[in-house]
Amino acid sequence: MATINKNYNKLQGGYLFGEIAKRTKDFIKKNPGVEIMRLGVGDTTEPLSPTVIKGLTAGVKKLANVKTYTGYQDAEGKEGNPRLRSAFLDFYKTRGINLEAQEIFINDGAKSDLANIQSIFGSDNVVAVADPVYPVYVDSTVIAGRTGKFTDGKYEGLVYMECNEKNGFVPSPPKQKVDIIYLCNPNNPTGSAATKKQLEAFVEYALKNKAVIIFDAAYVEYISDKSLPKSIYEIKGAKKCAIEINSFSKWLGFTGVRLGWTVVPMDLVIEKTARGEVNKLWNRRQGTMWNGASNIAQEGAIAALSRQGQKESRKMIAYYMNNAKIIKKNLLKLGLRVFGGKNAPYIWIKSPNNLSSWEFFDKLLGEARVIGTPGSGFGLHGEGYLRLSSFGHTEDIERAVKSIRENLKL
Ligand code: PLP
After folding, report:
1. CA torsion 377→380→385→391, rounded to 10°?
2. Residues whose beta carbon lies within 6 Å of some atom of ligand 1
């Protein structure tokens, strides 16, 4: 008799966005014809840049010609287009980081690799996550069977690194010994970004405890403070203990195109593995369970990494960060306690009058007709906060902010 993976029964997920949809639907039913403004979702809205479009179009055209047609990337394994991997080497070099081509694995966006990377680790590994944080790390740890039951807002066996106002929403390394640490930097949902010193503490911890850092860098291009690291490999020793997973989703607007990359350094050693063995393990996993990223998307990515492509992508980021500025400035004017929005596209708001996250959600929807995302959906320590996203057309953001200023009763 087939049985199900019982770990799925432990999951709490699915609740957050389902509940938001339900409450929004109820509101619309009670208030027909009223305009709802959505600042809850972290999805890009602006068109791709001309250089990326050119690259994607060239990719499509190659498929129309027998001489340039390509199918599976068998010759090179599943790691990705060699020209794209080489473009990444140049890209990292501009940040003072030297990588080898085989250390770069092209992915189809960060999410799958962030979850799938768990398959190369032993099932008894203890995992640490920031709290609050992007829920994928927690749920994939639960599905992999590395936690116990969910009680009092926490999974047994999972180590939570608290993010709060006091530590500027940047966690410290765990007090106890763990084996895998997920770091989301800049953090979704708090919008905080770690300093070099803060990341050094994690690398030092990982080297000392023989732990591995899974560094989710999906929002690094939003970092405006020049002193803040944009890659974990800017930290000395990180190649020995960190895997970096990144994506073009938020950087280029590839949420629908689907492309990113994962770096598994040759120097990364787990337990008694030899140099390069972990890299090989990931290669084996991908070769077995995956058939590579879209060749069209990879052509778009090559174009994006050109000088002109990068120039255009900076414009797109500036557009969203201008939205963030508009939101933050106006909320501060209302006297709300507001965080993030400087090095990340998320604004993290303390609920007024000690309201819970869901109470603030209802108030914002009921009074200003604006939808946010309750912070409690990202972890126990997200309770009492709400996340607003700066992804959207500026005119829509301005309308939402105006409505908050005029209608929110504080
Ligand atoms: N990491 C973080 C922190 C995110 O917020 C997201 C998406 O919202 C992702 C990774 C996944 O992005 P994608 O799979 O589109 O690359």
Report:
1. -40
2. 42, 109-111, 134, 184, 188, 216, 218, 247, 249, 255, 260
The structure tokens 């598994």 sit at: 264
Q: How much of the chain, in percent, has pLDDT values that exceed 90?
A: 93
Q: What is the DSSP letter of 189?
A: T
Element (H or E) spanning 90, and its range?
Answer: helix 82-93
Are the CB atoms for 143 and 135 separated by under 8 Å?
no
Helices (H) and strands (E) in the chain, counts: 12, 15
Residue type, position 79, single letter: E
Task: Report the C-alpha gap between 56 and 33 in whole angstroms.
Answer: 40
Whether the ω angle into residue 345 lies within 30 degrees of 0, i.e. cis, is no
Select from 136, 243, 343 the residue to mutate for testing ligand 1; criterion: most ligand atoms less than 8 Å from CB: 136
Give residue 397's pLDDT. Answer: 97
Q: Report d(CA 237, CA 307) in Å as an integer.
A: 29
- Which numbered atom of ligand 1 lies nearest the CA of 107? 16
Task: For residue range 66-97, list pLDDT tens digits in order.
Answer: 999 999 876 555 678 999 999 999 999 999 99
- The pair of structure tokens assigned to 83 is 């020209």
Burial of 28 per CB tally in 10 Å (0-12, 13-18, 19+): middle
Mean pLDDT of the chain: 96
Q: Residue 297 and residue 56: Cα distance in Å, rounded? A: 6
Look at residue 303 and give its three-state secondary structure: helix
Å from CA of 212 to ligand 1 middle? 20
More confident residue, 40 or 299: 299
pLDDT tens string 143-174: 999 999 999 889 999 999 999 999 999 999 99
Bond from prior residue into 229 cis (ω within 30 degrees of 0): no
User: pLDDT at residue 234 above 70?
Assistant: yes
Q: How far is the CA of 344 from the centre of ligand 1 (A)?
A: 13
